[in-house]
Amino acid sequence: MAFPTTYQPSFSLQLLAAWRRFMHWLTSAHVILALLMLALMVYLILVPLYRMIETTLTYQEKDIHYVPEAVTGEFTWFHWTRMLTDEIAQVMTYAPLQHSLVISIGATLLALLIGSALAWMAVRTDMAGRNVINTLATVPYIMPSWTIAMAWTVLFKNRTSGGSPGIYEFLIGASPPDWLAYGPVPIIISSALHYYTFFFLFVSAALMSIDSNLEEAGELMGASRWRILRKITFPLIVPALLSGFIMTFSKVMGTFGGPNVLGIPVGYYTISTMIRADMGLGNYADGFVLAIVLILFAMTTVYANQKVVGTRKSYETIGGRGFVAQRTRLRKWKTVLTAGVIVFQLIVAILPLAILAFSTFMLIDGEYTPSNFTLHYWIGESTPTISNGVPGVLRNPDVYKGAWNSIALSLWTAFFAALLGVLLGYAIAKGRGTRLSKLVEQLAFIPYVIPGIAFGAVYISMFAKSVGPIPALYGTFALLVVVSVAKHLPYSARTGVSAMLQVGRELEEAGQVAGANAWERFRRIIFPLTSPGFISGFLMTFITTMRELSLIILLVTPSTQVLASMTIRYLENDDTQMANAVIIILVTLVLIGNWLISLFRGGSLKKGLGM
Amino acid sequence: MGTSILIKNLTKRFGNVVAVNQVSLTIQPGTFLTLLGPSGCGKTTLLRCIAGLEDPDAGEIYIGDKLVFSSAQGINLPAGQRNLGLVFQNYALWPHMTVFKNMTFALEIQKMPKPQMAQRVQESLAEVQMAGYDERYPREMSGGQQQRIALARMLAYRPKVFLMDEPLSNLDARLRIDMRAELKRLHHVSGATTVYVTHDQIEALTMSSDIAVMKEGVIQQMDTPDRIYRCPANLFVADFIGSPKVNLLEGRADGANSIDLGKFKLAANTRGATGHIVVAVRPEDIAVSPTAAPNAIEFKAYSVLPSGADSTIVAQREGLEVTVRVMGNSKIKMDDSIWLTFNADLLNLYDKASGNLIVSS
After folding, report:
1. Which of A198, A286, A564, B298 is the most exposed place for a label (fewest CB within 10 A)?
2. Beta carbons of A137 and A345 less than 8 angstroms apart
3. Shortest CA distance to A581 belongs to which of A376, A333, A292?
4. What does the pLDDT average to over B293-307?
């Protein structure tokens, strides 16, 4: 390079230098990757969101029935006024919204109570069988969220829905009251029993990380156990409680299974079930308005959480040495409490499955006598008089197709989620601190604040018909994969970034100095060192996708049914035993997946939650 | 052998922080240059700019006669094409590769034939006294052994320039002293131009042929270790180098050959300096006597700290505190009266306002 070194270079030289600098920036691997990821996320997240909002603001073909002068495609506030200010808004929007809030808050508080009490007992008391408690606490969350709801109906359903009696009525003789059989109370209880795992995991982790010196300092000053718990321990686990609260709240807000099973029979609609009803009627714009309302609520809670927890974050770094403080002695309560907790957990973990299994052996639903026993719903040939001639699940090609679809969907989703995790992790971690990296990270976070059912709705608007280069994916299996992968982006990004950050940047720089190009560095240094994290992420994605319902319920078609959506379809056709048999198959698959994870060292449920 | 390194007006910012500020530096072939300074002074950033791991904002870097970075021309050669080796603070040995694989990584990229590669590995391992360790994984070795392997990995591909980023700071005190001798020997044998970053002044003084003391992104003084110790260019360098610390005494000079320290006057070669000045005197340059002596000033022994080979005495007089270092085990007891003699020829005088050296010993 024989350029003269001058500090007043000519304009063309300056331009050349600027161009070279730009190319240097552009050709670094993580910048290329980040730009690619940016494009992907605009396509997978922003464009669908935009299309959804656009749909709510234009006349749809169907609107001609309500507004004679409507011109399809023209701008209008019609859907918003209809859903928010018309007479119909009370039924269509406000009542479901109120119901969603009631069950979300109720279920979250109940889950908080159960989860933190169990966590405290498992971590901070001398209770026996603490390992058993730890293991059992994760079981309800592993099962599909509406399992308990389905078992609840088998147990408590009454004649209100016009069907057969439940076990309760069969045993007691009296029909259970409506408030116990359907509506908010059972939805809250069944959701809380599913989601208490969040609180259990968060709170026990927080309790374990508190430096016991902090509590001992209080003890030396003469504070009582109760006072220490209230004044020192509790404030220290507040961030964990808030994280659990937000996660549970937004999950329940967007949950579809439980409200569908326990709410619909008595007309108790939540936002999520109402969205599905609107979609079923072809009133897409109405459903989208509700989806946007739901998204706004979820975003507000997450934002509020970050505001509150953000200022308290400093607590979380306290201690972390992981030694356990002196355990509270339960003394005479020890046996009773131990037994009580384990019985409770066994009931929550096992009883629902037992009830569901039991019901599949009853030829006529509601008659619990030995003469009614049958294996028909498992292995029976097609009989026109039973379930409209649907054969037993193990002879039913639809069920095999659904099982295969479930497995394929989970495998593909897990594969792409892991792949995107690698790419996002590299792009974000390598460019850490730059605006591009922050932008990619923030975009990847968006699906986190969009409840599952709303996210499914977003994708209907995007892929219902082909627009430009975007194909019409509606009705295809590929769409289910795309939506599952997109909804999983926040977890992919988080897994990816934390895996990448664990590999010190010196390890890559050493390769850089040795002359390796970006691909060589990735292939020989970064990938081998991060792959364990991605494999456990892959397995976790596999089982979470397997039992996902809210996200895909709006997008499945008869040919793309998965086991999760089949349970709902059989329920809606009043084939209760079929539905229950299918969910047992689903749970079995999930448990096998979970067992595989436990074989793979380092994979834990907590990691899979991305927390 | 060895390559020169030329740095012109190099600047590197991180947001609003200027980590390296207009640094210009010429490193002669075969030099062992140490960048020395407190944490956050920009020494590691400067090293990483030379290595090609940071993109500077302005300036030029030549390695040999090759321009590897120029902001004006938009040239920025990737690290791997600069023909240099870097030893990281935490060694950065790839944990999933054996020692052999770690060492052949760069050679494979250079497409070196296999037999030659194996020979290189053996040679380099022998150079750091680690022959026979080729099949170990990093975690199967102690910190000191990993350190040697990190060196061997660099030696294996024979770079023209050695860069070392606090390579000894993760070792325990005894190993560190052994490794100093090894590193200095390695440099002596290979003759490769070496840039070494440390915050440990003893490391810098014992190993380097030149030291550049840095503060807030600016080189304060670049000189031989002896000159850095004897004639610090400013108060920062004087204060940073030396343990126990240099005594800095504020006073006034009026042109005569004495300085008024307030409580007493000190004879000094002021060479006509006047005004507020700071006298810097090394603890070992002050003589101590248990009895009164001519021109000696009476102090009280505030604290006596023997450490075997020498003893440190903290002396006080009317609020003035002076640290003195004497050889051997001092017989002086705490609270004894002692008499200190300042040698006028061993004082450095600094301008109080600018902090710059005005009269050197």
Report:
1. B298
2. yes
3. A376
4. 92
In A41-188, the DSSP E strands lie at none
Q: Partners of A470 in the beta sheet? A: A467
Distance from CA of A7 to the nearest CA of B (A): 8
> Contact, B125 vs B132, CB < 8 A?
yes
The reply to whether omega before B244 is within 30° of 0 (cis) is yes
pLDDT value at A314 more than 50: no
Where are any strands of DSSP class E within A198-266?
none
The domains found in chain A, sorted by start residue, are 33-50+89-311+330-379+405-608 (1.10.3720.10)
Chain A CB within 8 Å of residue B229 CB: no
Give the integer Cα–Cα distance in Å for A70 and A56: 14
Radius of gyration, alpha carbons of chain A: 27
Interaxial angle between packed helices A397-430 and A489-502, expressed in degrees from 0 to 180 and rounded to the nearest 10: 50
Other CB atoms within 10 A of residue B82 CB: 23
Predicted confidence (pLDDT) at residue B208 exceeds the cutoff of 90: yes
Using CB atoms, which residue from B90, B109, B157 is nearest to A520? B109
Instruction: List, for residues A340-366, the tens digit of each pLDDT value.
Output: 998 999 988 889 999 999 888 888 777
pLDDT-derived band at A605 (thresholds 50, 70, 90) equals very low
pTM for the model: 0.79
Residues of B in contact with A1 (CB under 8 A): 66-67, 70, 73, 75
Q: Do B60 and A525 touch (CB under 8 A)?
A: no
In terms of phi and psi (left: phi > 0; alpha: psi -120 to 50; beta: otherwise), the region of B212 is: beta
B8 touches chain A (CB under 8 A): yes
- What's phi and psi for B56, nearest 5 deg? -65, 160
Say if the Cβ atoms of B157 and A16 lie within 8 Å. Answer: no
Distances (CA, A) of A12 to A6, A23, A68, A69, B68: 14, 16, 64, 61, 21
Residue of A nearest to B62 (CA): A1
Q: How far is B93 from chain A (nearest CA, A)?
A: 7
Secondary structure, 3-state, B205-241: HHHCCEEEEEECCEEEEEECHHHHHHCCCEHHHHHHC
Q: Is the ipTM of this complex over 0.85?
A: no
Sign of the CA dihedral with A208 first, then A210, A216, and A221 last: negative
Q: What are the chain A neighbours of B78 within 8 Å (beta carbons)?
A: 512
Amino acid at A60: Q
Please name the residues in contact with A479: beta carbons below 8 A apart, sequence gap of 6 or more: A459, A463, A473, A555
DSSP state letter for A470: B
Chain A closest CA to B74's CA: distance in Å? 4
Rounded to 10 degrees, the C-alpha dihedral A55/A59/A63/A67 comes to: 140
Question: Dihedral (C-alpha) A120, A124, A125, A128: value to the nearest 10 degrees?
Answer: 80
CA nearest to B147, candidates B156, B138, B157: B138
Cβ neighbours of residue B33 closer than 8 Å, sequence gap 6 or more: B27, B193, B194, B195, B196, B208, B209, B210, B211, B212
